[in-house]
Every structure is written in C-alpha cells, then in structure tokens.
Design goal:
It is a single chain. A hairpin with a 5-residue loop joins strand 3 and strand 4. Helix content is 18%, strand content 39%. By secondary structure, it is of the alpha+beta class. It has four domains: 138 residues, Immunoglobulin-like, CATH 2.60.40; 134 residues, Immunoglobulin-like, CATH 2.60.40; 95 residues; 97 residues, no CATH class. Strands 13, 14, 15, 16, 17 and 20 form a six-stranded antiparallel β-sheet that branches. The chain has a five-stranded antiparallel β-sheet with strand order 1-2-3-4-10, with no helix packed on it. The chain has a four-stranded antiparallel β-sheet with strand order 8-7-11-12, with no helix packed on it. Helix 3 runs parallel beside helix 5 and helix 6 runs antiparallel to helix 7. The N terminus is likely disordered.
C-alpha cells in the first residue's frame, strides 16, 4: 500500500518497488475570468530516484506514467493519463522533472487518486495515493483570489504551454520549506472581480509581506504596489529572504482600497526550520517523545549524515546545533517519516542497529564508526557482497576492496578501495567507480607502500583505471576479480 505524508498542500509520495522513487505532489486553485474554478495538479519527480535508459545519442532519460482520476462523490468526474519524459542528460547526471495538469471543476468536494509508475523500471508497479480537494465557488460580491503559488523560476512566454500564466512561464516550487541555500522566494497570485467591486480602472493597493510567528512583518520583506481594477490581476513578486532567520512564517497578500480598507487577504505558511512543520501533539505521540535532552538527540541526528541529502546535511551541520529541542525533534521526526511514513520509528531503530554495527567494525579511538569512510559507505549502500582485507602485506599500505553487485537500482558491479597510510587503524576512501564517489585514477600506485613503489617498475605501468583486468598485476586482479 502506498505511503504518503501531507503537510499544508504538500504531499510526499514514497514509492517502493525496486527503486525508492520519490514524487512531490501539490495542487493550487485558480479561476477563469467568468468565475469557473480550475485546479492545477503539480507533480515533481525526483530524477535521481528514477531509472534512466539510453537515448539514441549518448544521453539518457527517465520517464514516468502519471494517472490522475478525479472523483465527485462515487462517480469519476474527470480522468487523465500522461507519460512525463525527463530531460536528456549525460550518464551519471541527475535532473528532476515536472508535470502540470489542469482540471476545470465546479465548486464541490473532490477526491483525487494519483498514480505513478516508473516506465523505465521493469520491476516497478504503479502506486497510488488519495488527496481531497475542496473547490470553493467564486465570490461574486467580493474581491477574491487564487491560491498563492510558490515559484522556483520564471520567464516570458514565447509559446503557450502548461506552465504559462498571464504571459509568463512559471516553474512551480513544490514545497513549503526553504533551505538556507535559497536566498529568494518567488510567488504568484491572481486577484479576481476587482473591476466589479471597485469599478473599471479604479486604483487600489496590493500589500504583500512576510509575517513571522509573532505576527510581526519582517523588515525588508514587504511590497506595496498601486494597481488598477480589472477582471483578472496577476501579481508576481520576489522577496529577498537571505537574512530571514530559521523559523515559521507566512506570506500575506492584502487588497486595500484608497481609504486603506482591507477588501481581501490571503496567506500561505512556509518554514525556514526543517523539511516539515510538525505539531507538538504529533511529536508527543511519536517515537521522538523519548528524547528529553538536546545533547542526546543531537548525537542521534549526527548519525544520520551518511544517509542524509545535501540539504539535510547542511541543516545537521550548521543549523540544528543552535536550535531548541522541539526544532530538533521536528527535524528528526520529519527525516524518518520521509523515508517510512508507516513506521518511521522502526526505520530509525533498524538504522540505529546498523550504526552500532559500523561502530563495532570501524570505530577507533574516540571516533565513531559512522564518521569513518568505511562506516559511511556501509550505512549508505549496505553490506558489500565481497570484502577483501589486506592489513599486513609488505608491498602495500593496509587496504580493503569492497564489491557491490547491486549498489543501487541503476548501478551494478561497483567497487570501493580504502587504504591507510597512517597505520593508525582508520582507512580513507581512495577510489571508487560508483557515481558521485571519489575518483583517483592513480590508485594502483598510491596503494602500494613507499618501498615497493620506488623499487618496482610495474608500479608506474598504466596508472589509469582503464587497464587490462587480465594483465597479471595483483592489485588489478583484486579490483576487477574480487574473491
């Protein structure tokens, strides 16, 4: 059964066939000039979690089959199935891709069933989740607005497409979380019916600002713009959030007449704290409730670095240590519910057991095993299928070669070479043929001990990895033909 987590209008879909495909889903409600509502279903596919296959040239791409069924009561109101093809990229690169599907829906309560299939993965099965959508009727006697849509990038429309609105192509930002690496926030909103309420071309003011959890407007994050009444008024703006501290906020858009009377207001919450905003009640009922001290929880959070994303690693390293216990609990809870929405506590326990294993195997002095290169690789990819250990060969520094038959769903027959030139008991990763791992094409020379390397002419022969696996060179034989 599919597992998902709903936060604001943000759904995380963790699909678990042969690869843990990740899909982020959001929806926004807009209106046509005649008041007819429509919803935009925004699906963002995390490219690194989908299988890429070769194109006719030297590039590869992913492909997802997206099915959206709209139910009104028990009846199917609308249906759509599309194949979403990812960008053509070089092998080893990663790139996300996105779909925007629009449905005209009269005001009512609907149930969306969204199904996703990784087309390029022969072992994948379609998985689904359900989302309720309450479409409100246009307010004919008031000024009203669309939802606030967060945007990651935009450009003038040259050819109308699914991302086009009001002469601009908008690439949605499918999240309510802004990591510290992002210094700007772009948002888009449409106002309706101003000409009927105020009169055609009558001036009014849009007051847009960011409000913190105490209700105060953040300095430098306010935009007041004079507008003229029209049937549809698009408003696109960028806030500089580089100085915005971690915490919870709201974007607020107000419409005021020339007497400064508020005619309409719409808000959208967002966070600079963590991947999710978790309620106190949810935390108290979850597996994180046992943590009553920040130092003990922070130690557990540090253990997550080997399997954390870059954003999560940055939070762990630079933000969480200065946060309070509740924020740390929120991050820890969110981290695991993103990976297992049914049993996040059990997922943590199983991972913690693996941390204990690598501490026993690779920890030394006061350094825990999960902070070593071997510990990180073990936790990130699992136990290797074969492990060659050479600690006392006089011709080589102490080294190990790990071999994985199936490193990930898309990478097979991958190796890692660790060595120790300090003879202190810890080994660093010298070379791997896995994607995004360290590469050193002089690895055969470097792993040889200094005395052997200086006295053996063979040590300098064919230093690149592109060597003959049957050359008779011992280190090459161990690398290409693990025993």
């Amino acid at each position: 059964m599919l597992k998902y987590q709903l936060v604001f209008l943000f759904v995380v879909l963790a699909i678990t066939p042969s690869i843990a495909a990740r899909v982020f889903f959001d929806y926004k409600i807009f209106y046509q000039p005649n008041g007819q509502p429509y919803i935009e279903c925004i699906t963002s596919f995390e490219g690194r979690t989908f299988v890429n296959t070769p194109n006719s040239d030297s590039t590869v791409c992913a492909e997802a089959e997206l099915t959206i069924v709209v139910y009104r009561g028990l009846d199917v109101f609308s249906f759509r199935k599309v194949n979403v093809v990812g960008p053509s990229i070089k092998r080893g690169e990663q790139n996300d891709f996105m779909s925007v599907e629009r449905f005209e829906l009269p005001a009512d309560l609907y149930r969306l069933e969204v199904s996703v299939l990784d087309v390029k993965d022969p072992k994948a099965k379609p998985e689904s989740f359900t989302q309720l959508v309450n479409v409100q009727k246009a307010k004919g006697k008031k000024i009203y607005s669309s939802d606030i849509e967060l945007v990651s990038a935009y450009r003038p429309t040259t050819e109308t497409n699914a991302f086009s609105k009001s002469g601009v192509d908008l690439l949605p930002y499918v999240s309510n979380y802004y990591p510290v690496e992002l210094n700007s926030m772009i948002f888009y909103i449409e106002l309706y019916n101003a000409d009927s309420i105020l009169g055609p071309n009558v001036p009014f003011v849009i007051d847009a600002y960011i409000k913190n959890r105490n209700g105060n407007i953040e300095l430098g994050n306010r935009k007041i713009k004079r507008m003229q009444a029209a049937p549809v008024i698009p408003f696109l703006h960028t806030f500089d959030i580089s100085k915005l501290a971690t915490g919870n906020y709201e974007i607020v858009v107000e419409v005021r007449d020339k007497e400064n009377k508020e005619l309409h207001s719409h808000a959208l919450p967002f966070s600079r704290v963590g991947l999710f905003v978790v309620s106190e009640e949810a935390l108290d009922k979850s597996f994180v409730a046992v943590f009553d001290r920040s130092d003990s929880l922070q130690k557990c959070i540090d253990m997550l670095i080997p399997i954390a994303t870059t954003q999560e690693q940055n939070m762990i390293d630079y933000q969480l240590p200065s946060m309070d216990l509740r924020a740390q609990k929120s991050f820890f809870y969110s981290f695991w519910i993103r990976r297992d929405t049914v049993a996040p506590g059990l997922a943590w326990e199983r991972y913690h057991e693996q941390v204990k294993v690598v501490d026993e195997m690779f920890g030394y002095n006061n350094r825990p095993g999960y902070k070593t290169d071997r510990g990180r690789v073990y936790l990130q990819y699992g136990k290797p299928k074969t492990r060659i250990v050479r600690n006392h060969d006089p011709d080589y520094w102490p080294f190990e070669i790990w071999h994985y038959y199936d490193l990930t769903a898309t990478e097979h027959d991958r190796r890692f070479l660790f060595y120790d030139t300090s003879l202190g008991g810890d080994m660093i990763l010298l070379h791997s043929d896995a994607t995004k791992e360290v590469k050193n094409h002089n690895w055969k020379n470097l792993v040889r001990s200094r005395s052997y390397a200086s006295s053996n002419d063979a040590s300098s022969r064919n230093a690149s990895q592109m060597s003959d696996p049957y050359s008779g060179d011992e280190i090459e034989d161990l690398w290409y033909n693990p025993h």
